[in-house]
Amino acid sequence: MRILTWNINGVRTIPQYHPWNTFKTHEEILNNLHADILCFQGVHKLLQKFAPVSLICDSQEMKSSRQNLPKAVGVPPSYHSFFSFPRHRSGYSGVAVYAKLASATPLKAEEGLTGLLQPNPPLLPSECISQPDAYPTQTPECEELDLRSLDSEGRALVIDFGLFVLVAVYCPNDGTDTDQRIQYKADFHTILAARIRGLVGEKREVILLGDLNACAAVIDHAEGPLMVARAQEEGIEGEEGFWLTGARKWLRDLIADNGGILVDVVRRFHPDRKGMYTCWNTKISARESNYGARIDYILVTPGLLPWIEAADIQPELKGSDHCPVFIDLRDSLVDNQGREILLQDVLGVTREAEPPRLAAKFWDEYKQRLLSTFFTTKTSSHPSDQQHPASPDASGIASSSSLSASLEMQPSKRKLDAIQPQSASQTLSKKPKSQQEKPQVSLDSTKLKKAVKGQTSLASFFAKPTAQSSSSKAVHAEKRKTTDKNDIIVIDEDHAPPSSSPTVQSDLDADYQFALKLSQEPIPSASSPLNKNLEAKAWGRMLAPPAPPRCVVHGEPAKSMTVTKTGPNKGKSFFICSRPVGPGYDAGKATRRRSEVDDQWRCNFFKWASDVRREEMTRKDTPD
């Protein structure tokens, strides 16, 4: 059995990458991840291909919701599925767990970590995973916390699979933020650790997995050694400089190697592997040089280690700025007494069993019948099938054929052909003979029904304009011409609007100077055979992109890029060093100490394309 976790909250979406873009359904994507239990974070990316366009437009930065989740994504035929969405804050979080029907059916399932998020009706005591005293609501360190608020962002699912309890989480990010969010992150870590300790206290085996948004060791961060060296220069001994971040310290203390209660399985299988990163900054193309961090983990209690036969990351799978992480469980295990224990037996649930009530298949959204089904005529290849009674699910509902017949529009007494213009009737000349020979109904006003007051008659759209209306239109046209002539506005230079930015103005100046230079060149007469060639060369020089400059440090041709961020510079081109980023790359004096710069990586070269073009003009104007 394979258990996989993947944060699909990347800048790119899964269906834009191969091989995911070759699959037509969400279930095909799940099947080709080759896992039995799949845990996703950033659930909104599941909508990008399979939801209607209107839903995608409404939730581009929203981590999905029950109303936005198509049934094909929410309830794939071969999987049990569970979701947690933010309660109030749109555009946030969202986690999902899929369990393959053929492999495992959960015993129990809960949303959140506190036990306060309840379905309707609430879970019975027999449906709860733990006893009341094992939840964070009963722990002293959580007494002062707003537990319901901490559990309202759709960041956790707790699912009981018999052999173990799966805790799938999406921890708040580790970036610098407001004091309020920093405190929220610390409080979330507190209740997460309390929930795990409560499960361990009940003698349960636990698998904690997901995007923890923190690093568990110096080796898990590309800049880790530089952070340690910088702290040592400031007098901080050992690796303590790396643990100044609260989230890293919390994760370090949770792992058994440092006295915690969980084991970092992937690191246990690959203790010395460097560059084992799971997340990269795609905005600076960091994945190309593997300049990233390991923040996606699968942590287990020590009692599960005998069941685990493999664990690793999958950086070759694209589709997000994260990569999947997985563990493989053995199909069987021999205990101390020599007895073989099958994995399916200790999971404890057969395929035929129903999943817990939290499963998406029980949502009201998926129980409702689509309105379109009431207006669809049922087709059958055998006439005898039409005589069968309706299915039990359709009891009390009129058949679609009878309903559509009752709603069918009655034919109008006035044929639409009677008011068709001549050109339209000509285009319909290929009608069947029975239709062509129908007599045309006269448009005599005495035979037409009187239009309702205030309502335009359909025939009026096909009537010839009267002389009065023609003269009225002529008057309006004359007024329009007069208005157009008077609509020319002269702007005084003293009152002209300012330029949007200096960089935009510099572009205009450069283009103006270049055009002025071209205008001063002697132009041959129209009869000259070189006229067309010179014109083509002139336009080619004006429209051609500037040649890439060379970066100062490496002397290599720079890479052209375009501003995509909304603002005054959007659409402008610029050049940067073409080398990839890496540990110690020059991110600028404000970010990187000069002593830490490693010249084998990208330098801080930057130049606007407009400046490059201006320099080219200057060189051409300067005599040799």
From TrEMBL:
Enzyme Commission number(s): 3.1.-.-
Record-annotated site: Transition state stabilizer: N213
Bias (Low complexity): 390-406
GRF-type domain ranges (all copies): 551-612
Annotated CDD domains: Ape2-like_AP-endo
Entry annotation: catalytic residues: Y170, D211 (proton donor/acceptor), H322 (proton acceptor)
Pfam families recorded: Exo_endo_phos (PF03372), Zn_ribbon_GRF (PF06839)
Official protein name in the record: DNA-(apurinic or apyrimidinic site) endonuclease
Cofactor: Mg(2+); Mn(2+)
Cofactor binding note: Probably binds two magnesium or manganese ions per subunit.
Residues annotated as site: Interaction with DNA substrate: H322
Keywords: DNA damage, DNA repair, Hydrolase, Lyase, Magnesium, Manganese, Metal-binding, Nucleus, Zinc, Zinc-finger
Single GO term (MF): DNA-(apurinic or apyrimidinic site) endonuclease activity
Site description Important for catalytic activity, residues in chain: D296
GO biological process, one term: base-excision repair
Gene source species: Mycena indigotica
Keyword NAD belongs to the record: no
Record region (Disordered): 377-448, 463-485
Highest taxon in the source lineage: Eukaryota
Family under the similarity heading: Belongs to the DNA repair enzymes AP/ExoA family.
Residues given in the record as Mg(2+) binding sites: N7, D211, N213, D321, H322
Composition skew (Basic and acidic residues), residue ranges: 475-485
Transmembrane segments: none
